[in-house]
Queue: 4 jobs
Job 1
Amino acid sequence: QVQLVESGGGLVQTGDSLRLSCVASSSGYAMAWFRQAPQKAREFVAAISWGGGSTAYADSVKGRFTISRANAKNTVYLQMNNLKSDDTADYYCAAGPYSDAWTTPGNYGYWGQGTQVTVSS
């Protein structure tokens, strides 16, 4: 079992920045961020391999969001800049294997409880 705890969400205004953090109870996994807006399906945001050498981003966040990790702290980060109202959602951290399916929710067996991000215009 891997436990994931997210933090860093909040209420911000359009154009602001936030940094989300996710602390894992164990190591060795690819990590990803997904988000889910009210009445919408969970969608992929970003992923990073265990060593950090591979990353992936949803087109909607490329150039604005950056995923990174500090393995010594078992922590993955999501730096979100130039936030838009469309970024409003619950953000979830996930842990799983590095695979061809790593941008899909089904790739991940471990999930955090989520942290809420609200971007007000």
Job 2
Amino acid sequence: QVQLVESGGGLVQAGGSLTLSCAVSGSRFSINTMGWYRQAPGKQRELVATITSGGNPNYADSVKGRFTISRDNAKNTLYLQMNSLKPEDTAVYYCNAQIKYSIGVPLPYWGQGTQVTVSS
């Protein structure tokens, strides 16, 4: 059974930094693309950044130049380094992983979310 556990959220002042982590546990699987999504109150969940198994990143325009996504495939862990944070970055951040078992297509798994609050 695959589980995704996020950590690293918290309260930070505008201009500050935070690093989120997402550890994937389980057995007998491989991980394809991983990503971070966020959902602010009253808004739909939106893409923040994704990264392929080969390490190719993709960012939402709103975070380009401020956020960096990375992964450690040996540790099955995903990271999001967030710099120059703005109040509009306030949201619950969710980790996503496309999990591939020996047969079948990759399936999406989600973490429970971690709150990031940026004060002005």
Job 3
Amino acid sequence: QVQLVESGGGLVHPGGSLALSCAASGRILSISAMGWYRQAPGKQRELVAWITARGDPVYGDSVKGRATISGDNAKNTVYLQMNSLKPQDTAVYYCNADVVPLGWSREYNAWGQGTQVTVSS
């Protein structure tokens, strides 16, 4: 089994910064990409940021210019830094990864449990 363990999150004041990390653990052969999605109450889950194993990032429109994603392939870990946070950034942030477990011949999409981020004064 592959697990994604998120850390960071919590309460942040408007205009503040946020740092999240997500580590994949378990019997992993390879990870082709990792990233973050978020879901606010009553809204659909949306892409925050995504990075491939080669280091190519993709950002959601709502966070472009405010977010930076980076990864450490050796640690199977992805990091997200967000600045200039707004109340609209309040959501549960989920880690996501495309993983090939040991003994598997194909990739599957894994999700973390989610971490709450609340932007409020």
Job 4
Amino acid sequence: QVQLVESGGGLVQPGGSLSLSCAASGGIFSLYDMSWYRQDPGEQRELVATITSGGSTNYRGSEKGRFTISRDNAKNTVYLQMNNLKPDDTAVYYCHAYRIAGDAEVTYWGKGTLVTVSS
């Protein structure tokens, strides 16, 4: 069982930056593809960025160039650096772990951290 704990959310002004962290425990972190999702109230959770176990990264179109996902396998932590934040970036941000084990898909979610972009 993998536990994911996000941190780093808060209130930031438009144009500002935040760095989110997700600390993992209870599993072999390096085996997992790690992602950040976000969810607005009343909306579906949407993928923001992914970093694979091999270190490849993918971003949703609107965040590419503003957000950077990275991981430190020695610290069992994945990060999301968010720059030039906009009010539309306001959401709860969730950490997600995924891997395939045999015939099964194994996924875990964190509880989320709130990011509010407002002046």
